[in-house]
Amino acid sequence: MEVPKVSVVMAVYNGEKYIKDQLNSILSQIDDSTEVIISDNGSIDNTLEIIKEFKDPRIKLYQNEEYKGSAFNFEYGLKKASGNIIFLSDQDDIWLENKFSICIKWLEKFDVVVTDCKIVNSELNILHDSYFHFSRSGKGMIKNLIKNSYLGCCMAFKRKVLKIATPFPSDIAKSYSHDFWIGFVCECFFSSYFINTPLLLFRRHQANLSSAGNKSPFSFSQKFGFRWKIVKYFPLLLMRYSSFRLGNKMQ
């Protein structure tokens, strides 16, 4: 089976400290038909210079004119991606050996895959051997509304998922939870598989935007409010899905 063209989409902002190691871990696994889309959110450190030093034709760098938040930055990168399969990537993690090939294999059977990962600190010392075990990750719509298992940096999916998930509703994007939103879309409309092998070092440090892997800083009312924001868009998702199905039938 021929491997479809793949896009790795990375959103970056002031990532000079870790981005070189992350890009090396990705580029060492992908072939020439895979593109690495990097959407920069107005970095003011040496991030752009580090990226350009790679001089790798697989890397395609796009720059936002102004800072708009991480979810909007990811959405901008997703718009630039041309692959039939999409990997999401953060700027500060490390892909472990065979992450790419293992995900590609499972995507022959499923629309979405989520890999386990090891939670590490800024120096890559292991804090938890399994994010799945730490977070009790797994499938299930209600389960994932209560506690999201779809960690963006561990996800890969077929392009059709974007037909339903994008554009992100503005209030969802402002909440920095694009992965929660995509996970909800996957649970509603697509087949997913959780790969129990840790294939990523998920780095936790002071500059992280996401609270995943740490105790949530949000109150119960804030958590409930955010989940209501997601659920209220289900009619919109149904309309998008119906349009997608109709479009496929007419082709």
Concise structural overview:
With 251 residues, this protein is α/β, with parallel strands linked by helices.
Please tag this protein with its features:
single chain; alpha/beta; nine-stranded mixed β-sheet; 11 helices; 39% helix; Spore Coat Polysaccharide Biosynthesis Protein SpsA, Chain A
What string, H for helix and E for strand, traces the elements in order?
Answer: EHEHEHEEHEEHHEHHHEHH
Q: What is the β-strand count?
A: 9
β content, as a range?
A: 15-25%
Tell me the structural class. Answer: alpha/beta
CATH superfamily: Spore Coat Polysaccharide Biosynthesis Protein SpsA, Chain A
Net shape: globular
Radius of gyration: 17 Å
Query: Would you state the CATH class?
Result: Alpha Beta
- Estimate the mean pLDDT confidence: 90
Number of helices: 11
Would you give the CATH topology? Spore Coat Polysaccharide Biosynthesis Protein SpsA, Chain A
Helix content: 25-40%
Low-confidence stretches: none
CATH architecture: Alpha-Beta Complex
Number of domains: 1
- Distance between the terminal alpha carbons, to the nearest Å? 23 Å
Structural features, described:
The protein is α/β, with parallel strands linked by helices. The chain has one domain (6-250): Alpha-Beta Complex (Spore Coat Polysaccharide Biosynthesis Protein SpsA, Chain A), CATH 3.90.550.10. Helices cover 39% and strands 22% of the residues. The chain is built from 11 helices and 9 strands. It has helices at residues 19-27, 47-53, 70-80, 99-106, 131-135, 141-146, 160-165, 170-174, 178-189, 220-231, 234-250; strands spanning 6-12, 34-40, 59-63, 85-89, 94-95, 112-120, 126-128, 155-158, 192-203. Strands 1, 2, 3, 4, 5, 6, 7, 8 and 9 form a 9-stranded mixed β-sheet that branches. A hairpin with a 5-residue loop joins strand 6 (112-120) and strand 7 (126-128). The radius of gyration is 17 Å and the shape is globular. The chain starts with 5 loop residues before the first strand and ends with a helix.
